[in-house]
Amino acid sequence: MKDTMTIVNNRTNESYEFDILDPTRGPSVVDISSFYAKTGMFTYDPGYTSTASCTSDITFIDGAKGELRYRGIEIEKLANKHSYLDVCYLLLNSELPNKEQSEDFDLELRHRSFLHEGLMNLFRAFPSNAHPMATLSSATSALSSFYYDHLDIKNEAEYQEMARRIIAKIPTIAAFAYRHSIGAPFIQPDIDRSFTENFLYMLRAYPGGKMHRNINGEDHIREIEIKALDTIFTLHADHEQNASTTTVRNVASTGAHPYVAISAGISALWGRAHGGANESVIAQLKMIGSVENVDKFIERAKDPNDEFRLMGFGHRVYKNFDPRAKALKALQDQLKNELQLDSKLMQIASRIEQIALNDEYFIQRKLYPNIDFYSGVILTALKIPTSMFTPIFVIGRTVGWITQWIEFKKDPKSKIARPRQLYIGK
Ligand code: SDX
Q: 315 catalytic, yes or no?
C-alpha cells in the first residue's frame, strides 16, 4: 500500500488522494498525474521550481549539501581519477569501463570524429563573425540528414552507435566553427591524439599540422593543458534535469531525430542564464576592470531595479557551493603557475567571491559561485577564445544530453511534453 498525500479544496471541501513515490535518494514526489482528472484544476509552477518531470538514475544532485554524482559516483572522484572518456562510458553504460573497454571506446570515438565532406559547405555559408554556438547548433541539426536511419532506433547497439557518433563529432564541429570564425582552414582530426588533445589540436594547429610555439618555445600541447580541459569536460558532463536537458527530453518526446534534440539542447544552453554564463563571466570581469570597482557592481547586482546580475553566481538547485565550482577553484590554484593564469581577472573574481559570500543579500538568497564562475579563467589561460567557452560546455554536456535522451526513449511511462496554462486572456 503506497503512502498518499491528501489535498483539500477549501472552496468546495472536497479532498483528493495522491500517491507519494519514494526515491533511492533525495526528495520524495507526489504523483499528481491524475490531478486534473480528479480536480478539474491544473497545478501551476512557472520554471518548474517544485516539479519532477521524470524518473532517472543517471545523475544525483543534493543542492543543500553541494553534492553531485554520476551513476552514484561522486564528481570529485571522477574528476580526479578518471578521464572524460571513461566518464562518458560510465554515463552511457552505468559502470566505469575496464582497460579493454576503455581502449575500444577511445579508439571508436577517434574514428568517428570525422565529418561528412558535404557538411563542410554548411560552415562556409555562415558569416565569419557568426558566433560558434550558432554554427554548432546548425551543423548538429544538419547531422540528422546524414544519419537519417537513426530516427527509428530499435536496439541497444543502435543506441550506443548513435550516441558514440554524436559525442565523437561535436568537438570537430566546434573546432571547425571556430576555425571558420577566424577565417582559418579546417584542421582534420588526428586519430593519433586523444579526445581532448585532438580538440586543442584542431583549434590551434597551422595547416599541415604544425603547432604554434608557446611562450616556453614548445610546439606541442602540454599534458597539463590536456588534463585541465579533460577535467572541465568531466565537470560539465551531466547535471540532472537542467534547462537544456529538459529541452532535449521535450524534443525526444515528439519523436524527432536525436541529433535535432541535441541541437535544441545546444540552443537552450547558449542563453547567459544557463551555459552562456561562462562567456558572460569573463566579459563581466573585464568590464568591472579592477578590484576597486567590484563594490559598485555588487551594489548593482543587489538592486532590484537594476537588471545587472552577477554572472556565475546563483543556481536553481545548489543552495551551497556548487561542487564543480569547488573542483575548478582547486584546479585554478593548481594551475596558477604552470598556466600563467590571468592574475588580474583572478583578483577581481576572488574579490567578488569574498564580498558576495559575506553579504546578507547573497547569504539570504543562498547565492554561491557556480561552475561558470571559475571555468572562464582556466579556459582563458588555455588560450581558448571566449567565444568558444560555451561550445566547450556543449562538448562536455553532449554525453549527458544523449544519455538522458536514451533514458527517455526507454522509459515506458514517457509521454509527449504538453503542459497546460493559467489563461488570463479575454
Ligand atoms: C548553469 O540548472 C542547472 O543545473 C544549470 C547548470 C548545468 O550544469 O546545467 O548548472 C549550468 O546554467 C549554471 C548557472 C549559470 N547562470 C548564471 O551564472 C547566471 C546568473 N545566475 C542567475 O541568473 C540565477 O541565479 C539562475 C538563473 C542561475 C537561477 O535562477 P533562479 O533559480 O530562477 O533564481 P531566481 O532568479 O528566482 O533568483 C532568486 C533571487 C532573486 O532575488 P529576489 O527576487 O528573491 O529578491 O536571487 C537573485 C534574484 O534576483 N539572484 C541574483 C542572482 N541570481 C539570483 N541576484 C544577483 N546576481 C545573481 N547572479
A: yes
- Please report the beta strands in 22-141, taking only residues with DSSP state E, as ranges in sequence order: 29-30, 59-62, 67-70, 73-74
pLDDT tens digits along 128-150: 889 999 999 999 999 999 998 77
Helix segments in 336-388, DSSP class H? 343-356, 360-364, 371-381
Write down the pLDDT at residue 215: 65
- Homologous superfamily of the 70-270+388-410 domain (CATH): Citrate Synthase, domain 1 (1.10.580.10)
* Protein residues whose CB sits closer than 6 Å to any atom of ligand 1: 47, 239, 242, 273-275, 277, 301, 304, 309-317, 365, 367, 370-372
Q: How far apart are CA 357 and CA 197, in angstroms?
A: 36
The CATH-assigned architecture of domain 4-52 is Single Sheet (2.20)
Residues 98-112, mean pLDDT to the nearest whole number? 98
- Segment 5-14, tens digit of pLDDT: 999 999 999 9
Best CATH choice for the domain 277-381 from the list 1.10.357.20, 1.10.230.10, 3.40.50.11810, 3.40.50.1820: 1.10.230.10
- Of the candidates 232, 240, 272, 211, which has an alpha carbon nearest to the alpha carbon of residue 396? 232
Secondary structure string (H, E, C) spanning 46-63: HHHCCCCCCCCCCEEEEC
pLDDT in tens, 146-155: 998 777 788 9
190 flagged as catalytic: no
Looking at ligand 1, which residue's alpha carbon is closest to its atom 16?
273
Residue with CA nearest ligand 1 atom 2 = 242
Domain ranges within the chain, ordered by starting residue: 4-52, 70-270+388-410, 277-381
- How far apart, in whole angstroms, are the C-alpha atoms of residue 377 and residue 118? 36
| C-alpha 61 – ligand 1 centre gap (Å) | 16
The pLDDT, as a whole number, for residue 150 is 73
Q: Same fold for the domain at 4-52 and the one at 70-270+388-410? A: no
For 80-100, what is the mean pLDDT? Answer: 98
